[in-house]
Design a protein that fits this description.
The structure holds 3 protein chains of 3 kinds. Chain B is mainly α. In chain B, about 75% of the residues lie in helices and about 0% in strands. The chains are: A alpha+beta, B mainly alpha, C mainly alpha.
């Protein structure tokens, strides 16, 4: 099965800085793939290399098996939704959406018809006459989407498209994008620094840090079984056990992950570890306790239904199932 | 079909050129720069270099031709009495004009930046821009009308019974003259009038960049508005003042028309250059003389850069 | 900065408006003088007002009209050349970084930064050295050189303000370099080029110093005006011509101003 998009040992250097350092990636057809990472991790550079806006210094970019490493953007069956939407301010919405067809010589009547179709698809019917300056952020985003999709690309690249939207709108757009992708069946490559977005929308997630791809897998896999320290800490709240504690609690591992929500409070007798409550934070649907165990502080998330949390200074026992602890093999590698 | 059919037919020329230029950004920039650089480089820099090279040559008195031998005779001539006078006179005028422009520009620039808003600010801005861009000669001509013996200024002063003041000023040494329209005093007034907008706009822009919160904080800490102005705002506006001074200084230094029309017979650098080049045919000496304003401006620019003027431009 | 709610002190307000008056009263005076019936001196106040001199300028002074026509032609060609060269230079310099970029910017500014007389005599001696006779084109050559920077500044400012992803988006959607230029870049630049062109036109129309040295026998309007300043022929006609010049330069400046403002506030 030829991957729709493949990056083969791709490097991208700007002077002395390696923005992307030897990344191998393969996206399957019809997949919703998210590149997740902090700023400067190289995720946007990877997207730009696939789109043709940045040229790799070494390695290959293949799209449907063809080597398009050097090809300019207009020669790739790939379209992009930019972070700032990049709508052409001197054209109305309809001309914006129909742009891809216009430069390819499609007749006016035909391209106007298809533009209207696309606007309906993104739920902005009849907005054709308006100008980008008159639209709200969410509306502009839909226009950018319509404009990219009208060319029926094999791959749609989305560069942090939801960053500028407020929370409620963002959640709504997340659901819409996911539904759209399912409906169209094309490959989406989504770039974000927000791990909630990544986990909730994707078929697979690739976590990047400092130019390297640290782990690729399904959201559940990345969350429950992170391959490195960095992934463990970036993808969710984490208790990273190290040294003596890790050896004792995680069967001799040098580094282990224990998610706060997997820990239950119970009596000290029979608990895996015991300690003193030092602090608690209220988050609405859960309470995060900090429990001091020997030299380490462990975070414990208590669901709201578990009742009032123990007060500061109380001794508590921590219980968790054997499967809840996850060893991290290259955890001591210092990537910072 | 579209560009997507990459492997099918050979790509048309237009696309191949576009691909090549996309990949080789440097080539594209080079191609863009060739016409303007050729023009400015060949036409302007070329002739400028030729002129400056001339400053080292000399004029043969007998043949009237330029002798292309490197020598420093012209520079020696510059250091002689009459020429030194001219240079000093021009530089002094430039300094005095700059000073007067600063004094006049500060209130209006401050007013525009801080106390005018919306339509009034736009109107004021236009009010400054229009004289700036409208004809230099027309504005000069307007002053010739005003300064004439029978003109508006004399009439107003007569009505105010201040004619004696005018006589006294005109009788004064150095600045006085035959009439307002033929005196250094008149020249000074006209220069200030002509270059004032060049001083107002950078200072106003510099004032605009001072955050309102600084001014409010100063007031909050107990400073009187004047103190706030001199101690907080003015120092921050110095780059703008330096930027404006560059204009007024260099424009005065090189001008030969205003002194010719309004001034008396005392010469300014521009006039000497013009005369030497024209009637005397002594291009080498004219070239050497024109190095003086260039050198003075370069010095001034260096000083202005130290004061941060280029951050304001 | 935001303007303060506190009203300005009376002293400040008076100084500010006095300066505005100082700048505009002389121009207003010329307009007044254009209607003056007195033709021998600049007496104030004018004894009698008349429209006669407008008629004289219109009918009896072909030299005035020749000069105006020449100035318009020179300005048109210079602006055209400046538009092309300025846009090319702006395209190369607006968003790039390379060795020598600052030097090139300085080079473009030089013609307008150095005193006109230096530019004038450099060009003049270059023409005589190369044996080029003075003509319409020697004037245009000089004017175009300093008009380039006016267009350049406007174009660069516009290009810097535009989002860089616009070009990428255009290419992403299938437009090659030339199509992107035509459909995205030039439309964006249009208003800046218009404003720059108008300013360049006004600059060229008004220029006298460089023109004096590069014109030979030709008389542009400023040269005509300068001659009148030194040796007045018919003062009232000079006044009338001055008013015409004010009107002719007034319009493009206003237009350029509104274009630049609309650009900043409008289409984004």
């Amino acid at each position: 099965m030829i991957p729709t998009v493949a990056l083969e040992n791709v490097c991208c250097e700007y002077g002395a800085v390696k923005a992307v350092d030897g990344v191998d990636l393969a996206l399957a057809a019809g997949e919703f793939f998210t590149l997740l990472g902090p700023s400067g991790s190289g995720k946007t550079t990877c997207l730009r290399m696939i789109g043709g806006f940045a040229l790799p210094t070494s390695g290959r970019v293949l799209i449907e098996g063809r080597d398009l490493t050097d090809a300019p953007p207009y020669a790739r069956p790939v379209n992009t939704v930019f972070q700032d939407y990049a709508l052409f301010p001197h054209m109305n919405v309809r001309d914006n959406v129909a742009y891809g067809l216009m430069v390819r010589g499609v007749a006016k009547a035909e391209r106007h018809r298809r533009a209207e179709q696309m606007l309906e698809l993104v739920r902005l019917p009849g907005a054709g006459e308006r100008r980008p300056g008159q639209l709200s952020g969410g509306q502009r985003q839909r226009v950018a989407l319509a404009r990219a999709l009208i060319n029926e690309p094999r791959v749609l690249l989305l560069d942090e498209p939801l960053g500028a939207l407020d929370l409620k709108l963002r959640e709504q757009m997340q659901a819409e994008l996911k539904a759209l992708q399912r409906r169209l069946g094309i490959t989406f490559l989504f770039v974000t620094h927000d791990q909630h977005e990544a986990l909730s929308m994707s078929d697979r997630v690739g976590v990047m840090n400092r130019g390297r791809l640290e782990q690729v897998g399904a959201p559940r896999e990345v969350y429950d079984a992170p391959a490195t320290r960095f992934v463990a800490e970036f993808v969710g709240a984490a208790n990273l056990l190290e040294g003596e504690l890790a050896r004792r609690l995680a069967e001799g591992a040098s580094c282990a992950l224990l998610r706060p929500e997997r820990i239950r409070l119970g009596p000290e007798r029979g608990a895996r570890a015991a300690g003193t409550v030092t602090d608690s934070q209220y988050f609405g649907s859960f309470v995060r306790l900090r429990v001091q165990i020997e030299s380490a502080t462990i975070a414990v998330d208590l669901h709201a239904s578990a009742g009032p949390p123990p007060p500061n200074g109380a001794r508590v026992g921590l219980h968790w199932s054997a499967a809840a602890i996850h060893r991290i093999e290259n955890g001591t590698e210092d990537r910072r | 079909m579209s560009a997507l059919a990459l492997d099918a037919a050979p790509r048309p020329l237009r696309l191949r050129v576009s691909d090549a230029l996309y990949r080789r950004r440097a080539l594209l920039i080079l191609l863009l720069l060739v016409p303007p650089m050729l023009w400015v480089g060949a036409v302007y820099v070329g002739s400028l270099t030729a002129l400056l090279a001339n400053s080292f040559f000399r004029l043969d008195d007998f043949t009237g031709q330029v002798v292309r031998e490197v020598g420093f005779g012209n520079f020696a001539a510059l250091l002689q009495g009459a020429n030194v006078d001219v240079v000093l006179r021009t530089v002094t005028m430039a300094l005095v004009v700059t000073g007067a422009c600063i004094v006049l520009a500060l209130p209006i620039a401050w007013y525009m930046a801080r106390h005018a808003s919306g339509t009034r600010k736009a109107l004021l801005y236009l009010a400054i821009m229009l004289p700036l861009w409208s004809s230099y000669l027309v504005r000069l001509y307007a002053w010739k009308l005003l300064l004439a013996k029978e003109g508006a200024i004399s009439w107003v002063l007569a009505k105010l019974h201040l004619s004696w003041l005018l006589e006294a000023l005109l009788a004064a040494p150095v600045v006085g003259g035959h009439s307002l329209s033929f005196s250094p005093l008149g020249t000074f007034v006209v220069f200030v009038y002509l270059w004032l907008p060049f001083m107002i706009l950078p200072i106003q822009a510099a004032f605009e960049r001072v955050p309102a919160s600084l001014v409010e904080a100063s007031g909050d800490l107990g400073a009187h508005p004047a103190a706030t102005f001199w101690r907080v705002v003015f120092p921050l506006a110095v780059p703008g003042i330096a930027a404006g001074s560059i204009f007024t200084f260099s424009l005065t230094l090189g001008d030969y028309i205003v002194p010719g029309v309004i001034g008396d017979s005392s010469m300014f650098i521009g006039q000497v250059v013009s005369l030497q080049q024209g009637t005397a045919g002594n291009v080498p000496l004219a070239a050497a003389m024109s190095l003086v304003p260039i050198a003075v401006i370069a010095l001034f620019l260096w000083g202005a850069k130290r004061l941060g003027a280029f951050d304001a431009l | 900065m935001r303007s303060s709610a506190a009203p300005a002190s009376p002293w400040l307000r008076v100084s500010a408006w006095t300066v505005v008056a100082f700048l505009h009263v002389p121009l207003a005076l010329i307009v007044l003088y254009a209607f003056s019936a007195e033709d021998q001196s600049y007496v104030f106040p004018p004894p009698e007002l008349t429209l006669r001199w407008f008629a004289v300028a219109w009918n009896d002074r072909p030299d005035v009209w020749r000069a105006i026509w020449l100035s318009l032609e020179v300005a048109a060609y210079s602006t055209g050349i400046a538009l092309v060269l300025g846009t090319l230079a702006a395209g190369a310099l607006a968003r790039t970084q390379f060795f020598g970029r600052e030097a090139i910017s300085l080079l473009l500014i030089l013609p307008i930064a150095l005193p006109g007389i230096i530019t004038g005599i450099s060009l003049r001696s270059a023409y005589s050295t190369l044996g080029i006779p003075f003509s319409f084109w020697t004037i245009v050559l000089g004017h175009a050189t300093f008009c380039v920077v006016v267009v350049f500044n406007n174009a660069v400012a516009r290009l810097r303000r535009a989002s860089p992803s616009l070009i990428e988006a255009s290419m992403d959607l299938g437009a090659d370099g030339f199509q992107t230029l035509r459909h995205v870049i030039l439309p964006q630049l249009a208003s800046a080029l218009l404003a720059g062109g108008l300013l360049a036109f006004a600059l060229s129309f008004d220029e006298v110093i460089v023109t004096t040295f590069t014109a030979g026998q030709q008389t542009t309007l400023p040269i005509w005006m300068l001659a009148e300043l030194v040796r007045p022929r018919q003062r009232p006609v000079t006044n009338v011509v001055a008013v015409i010049i004010i009107a002719l330069t007034f319009v493009p400046i206003l237009a350029a101003y509104y274009l630049t403002r609309a650009d900043e506030h409008g289409a984004r």
